[in-house]
Inverse folding.
């Protein structure tokens, strides 16, 4: 097992052809059940050896890879992926990451690498090497440390195995981005269906939670709380009187002082990790617009409150 950076979050990698390696990965991560993994490859050609591509998938791969888009496609029959990776499903999630160390690892290894986020199951995704080390403690695997992740949110997952392309997890690449390339409608199913059917285990709520509870759309801070700010904080006060300067040091993180959503996404998990450590009663979170990547930011924040 080796933890490595991607442009989204750090991944915990195992040889996707080896049941032993993948079983060890599930054990270290402590996933409660076998939840399928994303397979990382170095090129579209390598992806086509694993999954069945149609014209739509080829167009998306040509447009967005390397990049933060995972495609769920039918598994290639007789391929090399161990069934533990796909949890026995007839489909596989695959992507080419846009991060130089990830690509160097994939080229040197010369094989598919299954990689979930490099954190123990149920906790926040890691966007720095230190997050990986502190999540696993003494059991930490080898970590290829290469600084913070540029995007900072897990990849968009698009299910292309059915008639209508469907987003299973929101990310930096939005439904509008995908629809404008495909010239067709893209649906979103990031929540379980009303009858409770879960299409992707990633739809399960409470997946990205810090230990400290969040309070969303906060317009002020209650004493004892930490603040996750977005944009200028001029008008934020402390309930009962006082200003942000009165909060203990380390109790405020601003995702982007200029209100830049891309910068905010890159800072989201790091800021939550930081604020989670100070023993606050809640993390008050200022309103973040749901424009563009803001939809994925709000998706992660909402899950963390459930
Ligand atoms: O950005 C990312 O995607 C990161 C980096 C390391 O690449 N990886 C990541 O992996 O977030 P993980 O294991 O935390 O999330 C994988 C998600 C899970 O929600 C899983 O249920 C879904 O992908 N998934 C995997 N294979 C699937 C399949 N065949 N059908 C539907 N969902 C699938
Ligand atoms: Mg994860």
């Amino acid at each position: 097992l080796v933890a490595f950076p991607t442009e989204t979050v750090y991944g915990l990698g195992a040889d996707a052809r080896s049941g032993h390696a993948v079983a060890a990965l599930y054990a270290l991560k402590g996933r409660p059940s076998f939840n399928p993994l994303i397979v990382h490859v170095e090129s579209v050609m390598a992806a086509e050896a694993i999954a069945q591509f149609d014209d739509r998938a080829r167009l998306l791969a040509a447009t967005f890879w390397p990049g933060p888009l995972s495609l769920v496609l039918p598994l290639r029959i007789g391929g090399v992926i161990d069934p533990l990776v796909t949890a026995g499903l007839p489909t596989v999630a695959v992507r080419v990451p846009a991060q130089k160390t990830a690509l160097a690892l994939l080229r040197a290894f010369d094989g598919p690498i299954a990689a979930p986020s490099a954190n123990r199951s149920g906790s926040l995704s890691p966007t720095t090497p230190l997050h990986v080390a502190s999540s696993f403690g003494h059991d930490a695997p080898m970590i290829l440390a290469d600084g913070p992740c540029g995007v900072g949110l897990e990849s968009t997952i698009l299910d292309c195995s059915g008639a209508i392309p469907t987003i299973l997890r929101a990310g930096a690449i939005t439904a509008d981005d995908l629809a404008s390339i495909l010239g067709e409608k893209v649906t979103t199913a990031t929540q379980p269906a009303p009858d409770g059917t879960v299409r992707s285990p990633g739809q399960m709520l409470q997946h990205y939670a810090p230990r400290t509870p969040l309070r969303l759309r906060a317009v002020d801070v209650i004493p004892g709380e930490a603040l996750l700010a977005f944009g200028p904080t001029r008008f934020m006060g402390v309930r009962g009187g006082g200003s942000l300067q009165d909060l203990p040091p380390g109790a405020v993180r601003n995702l982007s002082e200029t209100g830049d959503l891309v910068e905010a996404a890159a800072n989201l998990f790091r800021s939550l990790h930081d604020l989670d450590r100070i023993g606050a009663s809640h993390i008050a979170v200022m309103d973040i617009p749901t424009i563009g990547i803001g939809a994925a930011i709000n998706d992660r924040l909402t899950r963390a409150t459930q």
The radius of gyration is 19 Å. The longest strand covers residues 69-74. The helical segments are 19-29, 44-48, 55-64, 100-109, 129-136, 175-182, 261-276, 294-304.
